[in-house]
Amino acid sequence: MKHRRLGQQIWCGLLIVALLMMAGCNAGSATGDKDSNSGAIALAQEFAPYKEIPVQDTAIVKSYQVAPDLSNVINAKRFDFSDNARTALVKNGFVVLPAMGHEFFMTYELNRYDNVPNLITTDAVVHNYHLFYSHLLQNVEQEALIPELKKLNFSLLQQAERDYKDLKGTDWENAARRNLAFFAVGSKLLNPDTRIPAAVKTEVGQEISLIKKHDSTELSPVMAMGTKPDLIEGLKEDYTQY
Predict the structure, then answer these.
(1) Same domain for 99 and 185?
(2) What is the pLDDT along the chain (242 residues), one digit of tens a residue?
(3) Containing domain of residue 113, as a range?
(4) Count of domains in the chain?
(5) Which of 70, 126, 148, 197 can pair with 76 through a Cys bridge, CB separation 3.0 to 4.6 Å?
(6) 111 with 156, same domain?
(7) Same domain, yes or no, for 139 and 202?
(8) The whole model's pTM is what?
(9) Distance of CA 219 to the CA centre of its chain
C-alpha cells in the first residue's frame, strides 16, 4: 500500500510538470502568433536608420590648372621636387611626399613657423583625439587605479594566506592554495618585491615565467593546480595576450 501511494505521488508530480510545460508552450505560441500578426517583431537589417540630407554647395574656387613649370604655384621655389613629384603635382594639383615626422602636428607646427599654409584633414583631428584619450587612460591607470589595485591585491593575498592555513588538510585545501597562488601572481607582477608564500612558490614562478615570455598557449601552472596535466582537457592560458 505504501509503495502504491508513493507511485501515485510520483505520477501526480510528473503530470503537474507536464501540464506546466504545455501551458508554457501554449502561452509562448499564443504570444508569438500575436506579435507576428501585429508586426511587433522585426529583424533589424541595419545598425541604425540613416537618412540622407541633400546638400547644395556652390563652388567659390575657380577651376585652375597647375602650370608645367610651376610658375603659378606661389611657394614652389621653396621645395625641391623630383621629376615624378613635379609630374604628379601638375597632373593632380597636389602631391604627397614622405616626411621625417611621425605625427601630423609636427608637420603643421613646422609649416606654421615657415609660413607654409596647412591643409588639416579630419583624420589628423581624429588621430590627435586618440592620442589624448590614450594619454588620459595611461594617467588614470598609473596615478589612480594601480595604487588602489596594489592595496587590494595585498589585502587579498594576506586573506588567501590565512584561508590556506585554516583549510589545510580539508577538502578545500587545493582551492585555497590555488587562490593563494592566483593573488600571489598578480601581486608579484605589480610589485616585484612581493614575498611569495612557500606553499605556491614553484607554481607562481612558472606562471610568471610564461607571462613574461608571452609567446604561446600553455597549461596554466596556477589554474591547473591539483589536477592531472592534460593537454586537451587541462586549463590553458593564452599567454600571447600579455
Answers:
(1) no
(2) 444 454 555 545 554 545 455 555 454 444 444 444 555 566 666 778 888 999 888 888 888 899 999 999 888 888 889 999 999 999 999 898 887 778 888 888 888 888 888 888 899 899 989 999 999 999 999 999 999 999 999 999 999 999 999 999 999 999 999 999 999 999 999 999 999 999 999 999 999 999 999 999 999 999 999 888 776 778 889 999 99
(3) 76-121
(4) 2
(5) 70
(6) no
(7) yes
(8) 0.55
(9) 23
